[in-house]
Design brief:
heterodimer; A: 188 residues; alpha/beta; 7-stranded mixed sheet; 24% strand; B: 407 residues; 5-stranded parallel sheet; 14 helices; 14% strand; disordered N terminus
Chain lengths: 188, 407
């Protein structure tokens, strides 16, 4: 098994990273949740302070590791431990947060080196609670945010998602795979 | 205790120094992921001698704890971590942010060298390959493993052209005849007419409107673009029929406060985008929009919100391809091997939501619909971009795709 078969889920607190990994993982996710503190406590009682981990078994000898980063920004110095190699980045954004554009900017820049080599997909959660910004608004934000980034896929998928819905997470991950290679899975 | 003895039980005990519970949890998880050696981070207060220690020198207590540990346990190797290695001469240091690719080699290096020579820390620093030498501010982070859309060959990803049978490889899909591109059989349609034309006008004008049956004035849709809402008593089958009939018999007018649906039926609410997308695909019905030429490249400037729109066959694949770089319908069919009708429906739907941009090409390329695919004028050819990833990755990615699709 190689260690670099990974998909990293990132985003701010409460965006649904843990739920998304749970929705598709073959194992109950290993989570290092703890009671939230300071700024986080207003949004969630518990939050991921280290990382979440799930597995997708893709054959007897192959696994894809699913990592969820902590959403608290002050732990960003540890994120590189997750991003060695890997297949792609799933960025989950919470539409009820005060400044989603700032969140998008922060996380894309935090992973700026990573996303030069792997594709990004963006899932927007809680649009049922707060429909604005819209998906088109996010596409517009992205054009501004990505100015100094060298993204492998500068036009990434931006989907409305509910991390608890497997179908949504499936679509997000399949969009990631097609962004790597639109030819996969095609009969030939 | 020697390192060899310490590995007798198959685990290597690691003591964390100067780390809070969160950082310890990160290391604990990293160790759990690491397959070759079983590193185990000791819990606070656990009374087991460690074989190695990791110290975070960036915390106030980290340096003190590291120095105390080294005085008390000179025989036990210690790997320090810091964002500023140059501040801590005398320690074998791993620069933060910590990466899997450097953490484990650094641990191995420290362990191996401590076994051979119980020498000074400086010697360890100088010999520790992946670590950052003290007094050097040069960051030696490795470049991203993948620097472009084309990955280097991956031992776990066997190119399909020379794949060898693997235990966990599913049997290859049965070969299928290549999709035929027959430009002479393309039928065009006008997206500005009928229900689709009315819906796009409402979308563009952003004025609340109703669409009525021209014969009797009955309201069929009540649409509020600002709220992105469409309400109708019609079933999918009825809408599909309206989309496909030659004479549409529809009218549109501004919504009025007195507008209401008959009270004897149930109403369905959708977003306006959902309605437009679906109406476009049904209206296209395998035909190509007259705004799109078969040999002229188009590109998605934004992906459709495919989790909230009616699923169209192969839409994820086509969206990924057309977001990547411009490609003509002819080229898209040839490369992706999708059915032309599926592509035309997708293009009609994407066009209806304003997600396509059209790439102008020299007249020589666009004038002959049946000619060779027009080259992209905006970056490398999709065919070039596709070739290597498609060959190099279909092993793992293909299995992962099958797995996800089957969830």
């Amino acid at each position: 098994m190689r260690e670099d078969n990974k998909i990293v889920f990132t985003g701010p607190v409460g965006a649904g990273k843990t739920s998304a990994i749970s929705a598709i993982s073959d194992i109950p996710i290993l989570s290092t949740d703890a009671r939230a503190s300071d700024m986080t406590i207003n949004r969630k009682g518990h939050t991921t302070v280290a990382m979440d981990y799930g597995i997708l078994n893709v054959g007897e000898n192959s696994k894809v590791h699913l990592y969820g980063t902590p959403g608290q920004e002050r732990f960003d110095f540890m994120w590189d431990i997750l991003t060695t190699g890997g297949l792609g980045l799933v960025l989950m954004l919470d539409n009820t947060r005060p400044n989603p554009r700032k969140d998008m900017h922060f996380f894309l820049h935090a992973f700026r080196n990573y996303i030069e080599g792997v594709p990004v997909v963006i899932g927007i959660s809680k649009m049922d609670i707060n429909p604005r910004p819209s998906i088109s608004d996010y596409a517009g934000m992205l054009e501004e945010v990505r100015g100094d980034l060298k993204m492998l896929n500068p036009i990434p998928p931006i989907f409305e998602v509910d991390g608890r819905r497997r179908e949504d997470v499936k679509n997000l991950v399949m969009a990631l795979l097609f962004s790597i290679d639109p030819g996969i899975g095609a009969a030939s | 205790m020697t390192i060899e003895n310490s590995r007798m039980d198959g685990t290597l005990k690691v003591q964390g120094l100067g780390m809070d519970a969160r950082k310890e949890a990160v290391f604990r998880m990293a160790f759990r992921m690491h397959g070759r050696n079983r590193y185990v981070l000791l819990d606070p207060g656990e009374d087991i001698p460690p074989q190695i220690a990791i110290a975070d020198l960036d915390t106030p207590e980290g340096l003190t704890a590291a120095e105390a540990f080294r005085r008390a346990n000179p025989q036990i190797p210690l790997l320090a971590t810091s964002v500023s290695p140059e501040r801590f001469p005398g320690f074998a240091i791993l620069r933060k942010p910590i990466r899997m690719e450097s953490l484990f080699p650094a641990l191995e290096t420290v362990l191996a060298q401590k076994t051979v020579v119980a020498g000074t820390a400086q010697k360890l620093e100088n010999r520790a390959g992946p670590m950052h030498p003290a007094n050097s501010g040069t960051e030696t982070r490795q470049p991203p493993q993948v620097a472009s859309g084309i990955r280097p060959p991956d031992p776990d990803v066997v190119p399909s052209s020379r794949a060898t049978p693997a235990e966990d490889s599913p049997p290859p899909p049965p070969a299928r005849a290549p999709v035929q591109w027959r430009p002479e059989s393309i039928i065009h349609f006008d997206p500005d007419t009928g229900l689709l034309g009315l819906l796009q006008r409402i979308l563009r004008d952003r004025i609340a409107a109703v669409i009525t049956d021209a014969r009797n004035g009955q309201i069929l849709w009540n649409i509020d673009p600002e709220e992105n809402r469409a309400q109708t008593p019609l079933s999918d089958e009825e809408i599909r029929t309206i989309c496909r009939r030659e004479i549409h018999g529809l009218q549109v007018r501004a919504a009025q406060s007195a507008d209401s649906f008959p009270s004897d039926g149930s109403l369905r609410n959708t977003t306006l985008q959902e309605l437009v997308w679906q109406a476009a695909a049904w209206t296209a019905n395998g035909r190509l929009s007259r705004k799109i030429l078969a040999n002229v490249p188009v590109q998605l400037h934004q992906w459709p919100n495919l989790t909230r729109l009616a699923p169209l066959p192969e839409s994820l694949r086509m969206a990924a391809f057309l977001a990547r770089s411009p490609a003509s319908p002819a080229l898209t069919v040839k490369i992706l091997q999708v059915q032309p009708a599926e592509l035309f429906n997708f293009l009609a739907a994407a066009e209806s939501l304003g997600l396509l941009r059209y790439i102008s090409v020299p007249a020589a390329h666009s004038s002959s619909p049946g000619a060779a695919p027009a080259p992209s004028v905006d970056g490398p050819s999709p065919a070039d971009e596709m070739a290597s990833p498609a060959l190099a990755k279909r092993g793992l990615l293909g299995r992962l795709f099958a797995k996800i699709a089957g969830l």
